[in-house]
Design a protein that fits this description.
By secondary structure, this protein is α/β, with parallel strands linked by helices. It has two domains: about 5-200 and about 310-390, 3-Layer(aba) Sandwich (Aminopeptidase); about 200-310, 2-Layer Sandwich (Alpha-Beta Plaits), CATH 3.30.70.360. The chain has twelve helices and 15 strands. Strands 1, 2, 3, 4, 5, 6, 7, 13, 14 and 15 form a ten-stranded mixed sheet that branches. Strands 8, 9, 10, 11 and 12 form a five-stranded antiparallel sheet that branches. It starts with 20 loop residues before the first helix and ends with a helix. The model has no long low-confidence stretch (mean pLDDT about 100). Bound molecules: (2S)-amino(hydroxy)ethanoic acid and manganese (II) ion (2 copies).
Length: about 400
């Protein structure tokens, strides 16, 4: 709740975009918490944050948990933040239990998971795992034309005394606790979800180019109305993508010159399409260019794919470790596929990785009304603590 007040909105949500003053303030709070329980603090060249509990084998690859603290502009208090706070609670529980782990246990805060300011997201985990080149990440601009590298340097300069670590250091395992962001666990009445994997997603930007004109004088037959063409394209996609299990939206939509009496000359819109089956996602994503071309009317259209993530399955050894930990605590748990993307997606290609889900009220997320029961979050955190202690011993 204290973390949620940083960037808190009047609708009881959170707006704490990556590398903003609000996020810098949140980083300061976490560093204070880490100092209070004796964790050492590190960062890296992409400003991921690491809080470390030493193990008896100081140089062993750490067991890592964590998530992100950046939010959507109309985000909730728990998306990302829960996984970071759960890491602190789990480590404190391990410290208080007197268990001294063999391997170090660390909490990580991945930079810019959401990608709402600098897009696409997951920059911190992609740079760490080398799944996206740094130079590509650093040149991304936000809506005000600020480059990622400028905001990154400003953030890093705020914490001059934090030791730097290399990107990509070895890890024994990565476990991310996160809210489900869907309704399944709540409907089942099950407090813990053992995540089986993450569905695939493909993200595009479509630029439609027409011509400005006088709203009152230019004959309709001579118009190159970029907005009308964009609407035709989106309508055609909604029809083509109306199949089982597909998730599809055009969340970002920019019109210019965006004034009432000028025929729109330019539209830029996003496509976020997801599906658990790799072949279906491939087929649907590959159809986008054709659908846009067929519906461009008198306008020009350019389709750019900016991110592609295959469906993935987390390793059984990690899923079993989480499920057994819940069992030992007498906590009911169920396997569940993640429909949302997470940094764990990138870590899956770096080390044995898994996720633990908590229910969230009516599955609401990426919405200021996102809400969770503290008891549910505590239950997931207990399973996380046992899982981390096991993996680190
Ligand atoms: O879009 C996603 O799935 C993630 O919550 N950013
Ligand atoms: Mn998240
Ligand atoms: Mn999110």
């Amino acid at each position: 709740m204290k973390l949620a007040r940083i960037g808190g909105t009047e609708n009881d949500g959170v707006c704490r975009l990556a590398l903003t003053d609000e996020e810098i303030e949140a980083r300061r709070l976490l560093i204070t918490w880490a100092d209070e329980i004796g964790l050492s603090v590190y960062t890296d060249d992409i400003s991921n944050l690491f809080f470390c509990l030493e193990g008896t084998e100081t140089d062993a690859p750490p067991v890592v948990t964590g998530s992100h603290i950046d939010s959507q502009p109309t985000g909730g208090k728990f998306d990302g933040a829960f996984g970071v706070v759960a890491g602190f609670e789990a480590i404190q529980a391990i410290q208080e239990s007197g268990v001294v782990p063999t391997k170090p246990i660390e909490i990580v805060v991945w930079m810019n998971e959401e990608g709402s300011r600098f897009s696409p997201g997951m920059m911190g985990s992609e740079a760490f795992t080398g799944r996206r080149p740094m130079e590509q990440i650093l040149e991304v601009k936000d809506v005000n034309g600020i480059r990622t590298v400028e905001a990154l340097e400003k953030t890093l300069a705020m914490f001059p005394n934090i030791k730097r670590r290399s990107l990509g250091f070895p890890m024994t395992a990565f476990i991310e606790a996160h809210i489900e962001q869907g309704p399944i666990l709540e409907e089942l009445g099950v407090p813990v979800g053992v995540v089986t994997g993450i569905q695939g997603s493909r993200r595009f930007r479509v630029r439609v180019t027409g011509d400005e004109g006088h709203a009152g004088t230019l004959p309709m037959s001579d118009r190159k109305d970029a907005l009308f063409s964009a609407l035709e394209m989106i309508g055609a996609m909604r029809q083509a993508f109306d199949t089982d299990q597909v998730k599809f939206t055009t969340g970002l939509f920019q019109v210019s010159p965006n004034v009432p009496s000028v025929v729109p000359s330019n539209v830029l819109f996003s496509i976020d399409i997801r599906h658990p089956d790799g072949q279906t996602l491939k087929r649907l994503g590959n159809a986008i260019s054709g659908l846009c071309e067929e519906n461009r009317g008198p306008c020009a259209v350019e389709v750019m794919e900016i991110a592609t993530s295959d469906s993935l399955e987390f390793p059984n050894e990690i899923r079993a470790c989480i499920s057994n930990s819940a069992q030992e605590l007498g906590i009911e748990n169920k396997p569940i596929l993640s429909m949302a993307g997470h940094d764990a997606r990138q870590l899956h290609y770096h080390c044995p990785t898994g996720m633990i889900f908590s229910p969230c009220e009516e599955g609401i997320s990426h919405n200021e009304a996102e809400n969770c029961e503290p008891s549910d979050l505590a239950t997931v955190t207990r399973v996380l603590a046992v899982t981390l202690a096991k993996l680190a011993s």
